[in-house]
Amino acid sequence: MSFVISLCHFCDLHGPSILLTCYSAPQEEELQSSNEVTCQACSMAEKYVTVERVSGTRYISSRLPVQRQALVSWLTHVCVRSLSCELNPCVFCEPPNCALSISFSVRDAKARGFYHWLSIVVSSRDLALLASSWPFLSHNIQLIVNWLQDKATEVYNLERPFRGIEPSQSRPLPQLVKSKAVYARLHCWFAWIIEACNSRLSEVIPRSPFYKLQPQHVFEEGSLKSLRTFLTAPVFDLAALNVLEGRQVIVRGDIPALVQATVLTLKSLLPGDWCKTVPESDEYLEPRVCRLLGVSTQVAVPRPCQNIVRIDLVQGSVSAKTTATLPAKCPTLASKILKALGSDLLRGKALAFHLQAFFQEWAHIAKLVHLTRTENAAGLLVSLGVKPQDQHLISYWSHNLCQS
Is the pTM of this model over 0.70? Predict the structure, then answer.
């Protein structure tokens, strides 16, 4: 909903009443408005229509837009509040509507107390938009107020010698400022303000930065270095350690292509196809069925725990959900991989060959350990440089490599 601007006044017969309402309407909307004369002071005999050349938007000014009953009800309500509130300016907010009100008085030799009260009300359904437009609205509405006050003061000075001769009465705005074109002028002012506000600020639906993007626009699919940058080092390092040691990693997100690309890139941390991987699943799969799993945000997954790392790619943010932390001493292979990925000297093919050498080295170690008798294993592990923190990784790799 665009802004709607109303001019209200305090009528001696009806109390708070709307004189003019300016609003935008599409070309196909039927023009139905109320200029019904309830008394002389509240009358507005004509209706004004302006068409913006570029956008084709129509700006209509009449007393009330009768085809929009919900809007009429809100404008009537806020009119009463704007002329009854002691604060000025004032913001009223009753979801889904909100309004900014600026009340003022003009001199009137025929009014009670020789002042006539009016208010200009700007209505919208977006409080943030209304608040952000406040400096612009305040400045331009004050120009209108000053013009009305100056014109009314000129008339008052002419009529002041004769005040008190006639009984107090409310009279139409054109008589009050001695200008037959006052409503036409206000229509042009209000229409310009609405159009200017619409061009200054526009409503944007917040979306994820990855919305409708292909994975290659976020990170280079298949590149562990690029994925580590995208996920951030702490999140990637936890996931990588789980993949290398055979614990489950779940990638959960609102963009299927991004989830699948992340899963398949993480899979390249292991040689061969022996890692149980499902890039896209409509249900949660247990670790014995799947070690590397991709799901949407609609799928129920386990709560964070020590043996599962969940990566959430939701609403443009990346986070890791797990109770696990990186150990003080990571497995030797994991440390070498993470160090290579963090190096600025290794990129492209050089990095790929570097990682491939690590995978082949530790695959041979795992196979050799699997073929060695238990009584000779301790000495072999020492000779191969296998440390205590490598035991879990070696056990997982040797079991799967010898079965594949």
Answer: no
* CB neighbour list of residue 51: distance below 8 Å, 6 or more residues apart: 57, 58, 59
Adjacency order of strands within the sheet including 277-281: 277-281, 292-296, 248-253, 308-314, 317-321
Determine the pLDDT at residue 211.
Answer: 47
Tokens of 273: 């196809």
CA distances from 362 to 114, 367, 395, 396 (A): 96, 9, 11, 12
| pLDDT, tens digit (0-9, with 9 covering 90-100), for 257-303 | 889 999 999 999 988 787 889 999 999 999 989 999 999 998 999 98
Q: Which two tokens stand for residue 128?
A: 């943030």
